[in-house]
């Protein structure tokens, strides 16, 4: 087997790809520290113990839905309401998974399911960037995902332990940390003029949903509007192009 084949084969050596993914995600972990400590602080203020906070982060692993869950947390918790809210917030993962699926060909079933569990906005964006240049291997993907997963659990737990020392995180602007991260990720996903229409539609739908609808429907509406406009704005391949692709 040639070196070139080994380099692109999904089941090939994972060490180099894993290290490359880890190095790619490391700068982002700085923001994860701030964001995780913030969540842990808010969780502690709602009465969650460090162990409960760690378990939520390990099982759910979705920052946005965890923040929303903590915001509506009651004692005892309203399980149905929490579950429905988390599902609503994470509906965007359906679209994210659909966008990533074409680049997972050749992965084993376990790798695909594991990759979907560890999928977060940040490693998803970096994975798409990678797949535009070279085949996306499991090693690279899990190099992105596992440090992010471990860092999120560790930082949210620390935030719950030491949350009493940070009474109002927003006072220091720490609540803006992940907004800044997402803006940075967007610059890497910009593909010129063809990105304008779906991004604009997503932004308008999300703002309208936030203004006129209760709860967090604006997240799902923004994702669905962007996906729909993106699909409609993408020209269908000509018959000759379809034949060439086949």
Automatic annotation (TrEMBL):
Protein localization: Cell membrane
UniProt entry keywords in alphabetical sequence: Cell membrane, Membrane, Transmembrane, Transmembrane helix, Transport
Topology of the protein relative to the lipid bilayer: Multi-pass membrane protein
GO annotations of cellular component type: plasma membrane
Gene Ontology biological process terms, A to Z: L-valine transmembrane transport
Spans traversing the lipid bilayer: 20-42, 54-73, 79-104, 140-166, 172-189, 196-213
Family, per entry: Belongs to the AzlC family.
Protein name listed in UniProt: AzlC family ABC transporter permease
Pfam families for this protein: AzlC (PF03591)
Entries under InterPro entries matching the protein: Brnchd-chn_aa_trnsp_permease
